[in-house]
Amino acid sequence: MANNVSTGMPPLKVGYMVIETDLMDDWRRFAVEGIGIHADDLPGGAMALRIDDYQRRFLVRPGPAEDVVAIGFEVEDIDALERASRHLLNEGVTPEPLSQSDASDRGVDAAFGFAGPKGLRFEIAAGAARTNAPLDMSTSGFVTGPGGLGHFVITSRRATEVAAEVERLFGARLSDTISQKVSGVQLELSFYHLNQRHHSIAVGGTKGLKLDPIRKRVQHVSIETARLEDVTAAFGRLRKLGYKMAMGIGQHPNDEVISFYVITPSGFELELGWNSLLVDDETWKVGHHDRMSAWGHFPEDITAGDRLRTAWAALTSPLRAG
């Protein structure tokens, strides 16, 4: 049976992400020399990272958070933005319009925001600015288009509630789930699509004792390259530059992406992948997998001490909102 949800939310795709950091130089090195994407300087010391004809895909701005602080979803036009606002109001969420200055920083005509889990800000925007300016990238290209920028993963002690909010507020449809025991803890992940991309949002939690060892708002963000060679070349560049790998190259069983996970200068992870499955709601069947990876994705720079510190942090950290 096709997986579909009736919703008042217009079609969405991930449009941009806002990162706050005090490590601007390291982020430039990581993005340009490592991942191989284009960077433009902005007023106030900020930086725009571009991977296609959008003027903003990642807005990296000075600040103490060392995290993704906002994720923007794109709708087709201002009419769709108004429909999205009405939908959220009907669901008990009050959208807060962004100032013209903040919208301009994000490269959009208009947007509003509302609170998400763990202090993350969700935004919905219309009128993304495009540019014909050439891209200076080591990577041959990225897969965006109808599937948007990519995806992100949130972990939470209240993963069931967060997943329900993702379905209710965004009209997200479940693609599949994965369960796997890691260091004695049963991890449960649910993967949601908003469009043809296999998933734009994933929500993770633990079975039984509710833990959230991930202090960051977002566990990882992911972008998709045009060629497999882009993935392997970036892996080599990042290794040479000294960036730590959370997981080496491997393949996921659900979206079939071949990818690796690198630790960003701010501490959350970035997945660089290739060749994701596309979802057709008319024919897609929700599946379940009992492992995160079909092959590979072995920890590269994560030690036993790191795993112990992660477990201790999960047990002793205060309950973070979301």
State which percent range the strand residues make up: 25-35%
Name of the CATH architecture: Roll
Kindly report the average pLDDT value: 92
CATH class: Alpha Beta
The biggest sheet amounts to: 10 strands, mixed
Rounded to the nearest angstrom, the radius of gyration is 19 Å
Q: CATH superfamily, please? A: 2,3-Dihydroxybiphenyl 1,2-Dioxygenase, domain 1
> Main sheet: which strands, in order across?
17-10-11-12-9-13-16-15-14-18
Q: What name does the CATH topology carry?
A: 2,3-Dihydroxybiphenyl 1,2-Dioxygenase, domain 1
Unreliable stretches, pLDDT < 50, 5 or more residues? 1-6, 314-321
User: How many strand segments?
Assistant: 18
Tell me the number of structural domains: 1
Ends apart, CA distance between termini: 32 Å
What is the helix/strand order?
A: EHEEEEHEHEEEHEEEEHEEEEEH
Percent range for helical residues? 10-25%
Task: Please state the structural category.
Answer: alpha+beta
